[in-house]
Design a protein that fits this description.
The complex is a heterodimer. By secondary structure, chain A is of the alpha/beta class. Helix content of chain A is 36%, strand content 17%. Chain A has helices at residues 18-29, 67-77, 84-103, 136-148, 215-223, 254-257, 287-298, 314-326, 346-352, 354-364, 419-440, 450-465, 472-486, 493-511, 523-547, 593-599; strands spanning 5-14, 34-38, 54-55, 118-119, 129-130, 154-157, 159-167, 170-178, 184-194, 227-228, 233-240, 261-263, 336-339, 373-382, 385-387, 400-402, 407-408, 570-577, 580-587. Chain B has two domains: 4-102, Ubiquitin-like (UB roll) (Roll); 105-241, Alpha-helical ferredoxin (Fumarate Reductase Iron-sulfur Protein, Chain B, domain 2), CATH 1.10.1060.10. Chain B has ten helices and seven strands. The chains are: A alpha/beta, B alpha+beta.
């Protein structure tokens, strides 16, 4: 073990997206010696891809908005599987977190009277998303990055964590390799915050960047922490479908928030026929009413009519699009049409949706101010993740905290657009604060177990020792295709069972994966290691999806098409027993009466 | 359209390396980064390249494609003739780590020198026309292509004296922020070396975000420094004729 460098910190944060940076700022501010470990260069994390905005009930455009309405919208969007306390804290604290970003230099779009502008989004009753055109995530990450630079936080860029180290049932740090040199470093820490984002690289059609290989989910599982709600994977309704090389790339919900409409090949706005029972009466019945709403919004007036059904929640819209395509009313390349060109003048489209305009022009030869976009569902967000305490974000493993996409509870079975960036800020801050407090209580650094280090280093180098074996890229491609086919947007028992069999075969192949070259900046080796995370977490998702015999939010079972009130009373947790992944029902936390009152329609 | 693309990719490190030729199958809509990924999956899994979002938003996959600085994820193959060989090299201004990956850590060190945003006390309202000016600079995705083509950095390697266009854009975003109260003109003149830019606009030409780096960021900053430190007559003249 002596051959490895050991670095000591009070708090180590794994991941440098929005939640990781926000956690680091808070930990450091609370006096903890803090470091961030991240897989990419600083400022490149997946948060930069967030487009539409950050949800916070600032009530700058509609003074009827407040935390209670935001709480209700979030719970309803999650089909009430959310942890009520997280949803409450999130709704209450998001406005402060957004205002704080402005204090740190973020430049949000402005209202006519000079305040932060907010836009409409799916599932939010009032215009609630503070935004910067369609590049809100970049603004958020750059603001936090530039703030963090001056806060004395050490950053270890292009390091990948392979194991959370434990000692006497609590965290003692983590083991990471530097991508450039391939050398391992021991990070000995009193508290760890996982902020690694999602798992979208397990699917073929995805809006997620290469980093989303389920790292944090797997690290937590392997270290003995519990995962929650793992059956809920969000497919965003609008990804690009053509050309093939950009299939899955995200098109912001902001297009619909700005008045864009969905049409099938017959030119019909099919969302009017797809309003679910629980949202009946809340959406426009006719095109006239929907158009009237857009007119009011564009004129900066409070609409007196109901909103267009294109602004239903993502689970609903994604399923409706899938149905249109399956029933033969799709676009030429297997999507539907999203039309903003006929709805808003070209100059406004370019101003409000600059990256969408640019993205289609450059990558698809489509001018979105003149013609409709072809869109279809794309794997986008993981509602499930590390089970955490709602106040402190501590996991079921002592000293291990989690925040952002990798943590679970806030979004229940389906996340509302805009609630992710606010999640990062609210719970990133909390995780940093409580991790620092946890570290402060400890006098000494916990001991690092040399066996854990040696075992992981040895296992990690195995792909170099294989004389025969497969290329990791082919295994990764097969995994993604399999998950897309069998554990996708609509699931059935037979396919899920087949998926478990396929995962076993893929795991066998992955055990014999062979990489060439040496340990220095070797993407083949990196992928060979990432594959282990992806395989285990794919299995957790598949097992949880198999257990939940109902359809709710993002989890749709063809063999159990309706929601079942009994299933509405439980969450699923997953954990390791020996080497086996176990899935188990746990009762939902009980919502206090005063909050229950808010959930009534 | 030919169904095969020929690439020549730099393989090696800062000391030695060579251009290696690969052939990969070609699909509709493919970009240069897709072709590089095909090389990894078919020929050479250890080919080093940085990338993240593959949508022009993160600025990780900067390289020199046929001699032109580009984001590989936004560079369509069908812009090149079917039978053309596409050469891909790492950015020249920075030391090469391996293959297409270079050491850009110098940029992160420069960033630390810039004093943070300092908000004014009291009223926080400001208007969209004020935000517009700053938002242009905040579009920067830190691809460092502007740093790569700036001849002060590329040919003269004056990294100790000049911060490069990226960080002048960053300072402009702070200095022109309607709520900021910090004064960075001394830093601009000395440590950041704004005077070393001689306005050849190479940076503006390569910016994938189309930021008017020279006209909207660097020239106004140069004027600030001049106003503050030099030439009182010039200062009066500019006030009188109001050319800006």
């Amino acid at each position: 073990m002596d051959k490895y460098t050991t670095l000591q910190y009070d708090v180590i944060i794994i991941g440098a997206g929005g939640s990781g940076l926000r956690a680091a700022i808070e930990a450091s501010r609370n006096g903890a010696k803090t470091a961030i470990i991240c897989k990419s260069l600083l400022g490149k994390a997946h948060t930069v891809m967030a487009e539409g905005g950050v949800a916070a009930a600032l009530a700058n455009l509609d003074d009827r908005d407040n935390w209670k309405v935001h709480f209700r919208d979030t719970m309803k969007g999650g089909k009430y599987l959310n942890h009520w306390r997280m949803a409450q804290l999130h709704a209450q604290e998001a406005p402060d977190r957004v205002n704080e970003l402005e204090e740190w230099g973020a430049v949000f779009d402005r209202t006519q009277d000079g305040r932060i502008l907010q836009r409409n989004f799916g599932g939010h009753t009032y215009p609630r998303l503070a935004h910067v055109g369609d590049r809100t995530g970049l603004e958020l990450i750059r603001t936090l990055q530039d703030k963090g630079v001056h806060d004395g936080i050490d950053v270890y860029m292009e390091y990948t964590v392979r194991r959370i180290l434990t000692s006497e049932g609590a965290v003692s740090g983590c083991l990471a390799y530097q991508r450039e040199t391939g050398r391992f470093t021991i990070f000995n820490a009193k508290a760890l915050v996982i902020a690694t984002g999602g798992i979208g690289q397990c699917w073929d059609i995805t809006s997620n960047s290469w980093e989303y290989t389920a790292d944090g989910h797997a690290l937590a599982l392997w270290a003995g922490a519990q995962l929650l709600d793992m059956e809920f994977v969000q497919f965003h309704p609008t990804g690009m479908v053509w050309p093939p090389s950009v299939r899955g790339t995200l098109i912001t919900e902001g297009v619909r928030g700005e008045g864009g409409v969905l049409k099938n090949s017959e030119g019909k706005r099919f969302m009017f026929n797809n309003v679910p029972e629980m949202y009946k009466g809340e959406f426009a019945d006719t095109e006239e009413e929907a158009n009237e709403w857009v007119k009011s919004v564009v004129a900066n007036k409070i609409p007196k009519v109901r909103r267009p059904p294109e602004l239903l929640t993502r689970d609903v819209v994604a399923r409706a699009i899938r149905k249109e395509v399956l029933e033969g009313r799709g676009s030429p390349h297997g999507g539907v049409f999203l039309d903003i060109a006929s709805r808003r003048p070209a100059a406004e489209i370019i101003r409000k949706l600059p990256s969408m305009y640019h993205q289609f022009k450059e990558l698809a030869d489509v001018d979105i101010t003149k013609e409709p976009m072809e869109v279809g569902p794309t794997c986008h967000y993981m509602m499930g993740g590390v089970k955490v305490d709602p106040e402190t974000q501590e996991s079921t493993l002592t000293g291990l905290f989690a925040a952002g996409e990798v943590a679970a509870g806030l979004h229940g079975s389906n996340r509302l657009g805009g609630n992710s960036l606010s999640d990062l800020l609210v719970f990133g801050k909390r995780a940093g604060e409580y991790a620092a407090a946890f570290a402060k209580k400890m006098t000494d650094y916990p001991k690092v177990d040399p066996d854990q280090v040696n075992e992981t280093v040895k296992g990690s180098k195995k792909p170099f020792e294989q004389t025969e074996g497969e290329n990791p890229y082919s295994i990764s491609e097969d995994l993604k295709k399999m998950m897309q086919d069998k554990v996708g947007i609509v699931r059935t028992e037979s396919e899920l069972k087949e998926a478990l069999g396929e995962l076993n075969k893929l795991r066998e192949r992955a055990n014999n994966v062979k990489v060439g070259g040496n340990v220095q900046f070797n993407p083949g080796w990196h992928l060979a290691l990432d594959l282990r995370n992806m395989l285990d977490i794919s299995e957790v998702v598949t097992k949880a999806a198999l257990v939940r015999q109902e359809s709710r939010g993002a989890h749709t079972r063809e063999d159990f098409p309706g929601s079942d009130p009994e299933w509405g009373k439980v969450n699923l947790i997953a954990y390791l027993r020996g080497d086996a992944i176990e899935v188990e029902k746990v009762p939902l936390p009980i919502v206090p009466p005063e909050l229950k009152e808010l959930l009534k329609d | 359209m030919s169904n095969v693309t020929t690439l020549q990719i730099y393989r090696g490190d800062n000391e030695s390396g060579e251009m290696v030729e690969y052939q990969v199958p070609r699909n509709p809509g493919m970009v240069v980064l897709d072709a590089v990924h095909k090389v990894q999956s078919i020929h050479s899994p250890d080919l080093a390249v940085r990338w993240n979002c593959k949508a022009g938003k993160c600025g990780s996959c900067s390289a020199e494609v046929n001699g032109k600085p580009k984001l590989m994820c936004m560079d369509r193959l069908n812009k090149y003739p079917d039978d053309a060989t596409i050469s891909i090299r790492p950015m020249k201004t920075f030391p090469i780590v391996k293959d297409l990956v270079c050491d850009v850590s110098w940029n992160y060190e420069v960033n630390k020198k810039i004093p943070a945003f300092k908000i004014r006390k009291g009223e926080r309202k400001y208007y969209q026309y004020e935000a517009d000016r700053v938002q242009e600079f905040r579009k920067c995705i830190e691809c460092f292509l502007c740093q790569n083509v700036c001849h002060v950095l590329r040919e003269h390697q004056l990294k100790d004296e000049f911060c490069g266009p990226r960080f002048l854009v960053r300072v402009a975003g702070l200095e022109m922020h309607p709520l900021d109260t910090e004064d960075r003109s001394e830093l601009l003149k000395n440590e950041l070396g704004v005077g070393l830019c001689n306005i050849t606009k190479c940076c503006t030409e390569v910016c994938p975000e189309s930021i008017a780096i020279t006209d909207n960021a660097i020239i106004p900053l140069k004027e600030r420094v001049v106003d503050r430190f030099f030439d009182p007559l010039g200062w009066i003249a500019r006030k009188l004729f109001k050319k800006t």
